Amino acid sequence: MNVEYTGRHYEVTPAIRKEVETGLTKLRKILGDRFETKVILAVEKHRHKAEITISPRNGPLVGLAQAKDMTIAVHQALDHLEKQAVKYKTRGQARKRSARKSEEVKKWNGHSPQDAETVQTVVGLTEKTAVAVAVHRYPPVARTTEVHLVRSDEAVAMRPMTLEEAIKEAHFRDRDVFVFRDPKGKVMILHRTRDGKMELIEAP
Questions:
Q1: What is the pLDDT of residues 30-87, one digit of tens each?
Q2: Euclidean distance between CA atoms 156 and 189, whole angstroms
Q3: What's the predicted TM-score (pTM) here?
């Protein structure tokens, strides 16, 4: 198990290493073995901070936590990572399912599904050369789902922050969209795409 530890004003003890590696065993059951791990443990003004970063194939996952005790902080960071890992795994499975569905569409055998609205017609110059063609009818108005609005302060930063801080905060709050101001006061939006990558949108 390849884990890189960094201690800032904190000595990484064997007990803490064991706690981290026990938590990582759970993550490996969810994501498999192919990821690197970096652990940063720091003490600032009597606050113990744990930052655990794992790097699966489609982008890093970060667990951040702080507490009065380092063991508690490590547990909270690992719990947060576990939630992200489950979400990451579910997202990957959904992509595989949609890919399989698109493959099935590509392998269409010429028979239209029974529930499709189709009209049979023929194309050809004579009756002998005429070929049957299925013409699909699409509804004139596309079906739409009802919009469900939820107001959330978790997706908006209350203080200016750098891009690196904003990415960590978005991971920490487990948000796919995160709005913040950079140190110059410009409004920026972080958006996690379907493949798990973060993209930055600069508001005009």
A1: 888 778 899 999 998 889 999 999 888 777 888 899 899 999 999 999 998 888 888 8
A2: 9
A3: 0.47
User: Tokens standing for 119?
Assistant: 């009209």
**Kind of pairing, strands 187-192 and 177-181?**
antiparallel
Helices marked H in 32-152:
70-106
Rounded distance between C-alpha atoms, residue 98 and residue 103, angstroms: 9
Which CA distances in Å does 45 have to 11, 49, 66, 144, 150?
16, 10, 11, 52, 36
Where, residue-wise, is CATH 3.30.160.100 in the chain? 3-94
Check whether domain 163-202 has CATH 3.30.505.50, yes or no: yes
Model confidence pLDDT, tens digit, residues 104-121:
555 544 444 544 455 555
| Fold classification of 3-94 (topology level) | Double Stranded RNA Binding Domain (3.30.160)
